[in-house]
Write a sequence for this structure.
């Protein structure tokens, strides 16, 4: 059983920054997803064991995902936040590569409880 511990999140004004962190006991790939009220959950960013990142088009150039293997932790640095980034953010861990897109939630085996990010205008 892989346990995920999320931290970070909060409220910020548009243009501001936040950093999310997620610690996991083990993972092959870690991803961040978000779900806004009334919308489906969507993939935001992921990073695999070779440190290859993948980003959703909506966050490219604003978000950076990184991993600290020594601490089994993945960070999501979110800059130039927009009101439309407001959502519950979830980290997810995949323990093996199933060959699909790392922005597809079906590729992940374990999920965190979520942390709220609110961006105001």
């Amino acid at each position: 059983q892989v346990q995920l511990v999320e931290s970070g999140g909060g409220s910020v004004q548009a243009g501001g920054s936040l950093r999310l962190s997620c610690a996991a006991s083990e993972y092959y790939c870690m991803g961040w997803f978000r779900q806004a009220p009334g919308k489906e959950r969507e993939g935001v960013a992921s990073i695999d064991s070779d440190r290859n990142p993948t980003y959703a088009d909506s966050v490219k150039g604003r978000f950076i995902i990184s991993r600290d293997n020594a601490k089994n932790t993945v960070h999501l640095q979110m800059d130039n936040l927009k009101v439309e980034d407001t959502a519950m953010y979830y980290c997810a861990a995949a323990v093996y590569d199933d060959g699909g897109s790392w922005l597809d939630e079906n590729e992940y085996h374990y999920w965190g409880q979520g942390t709220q990010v609110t961006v105001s205008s």
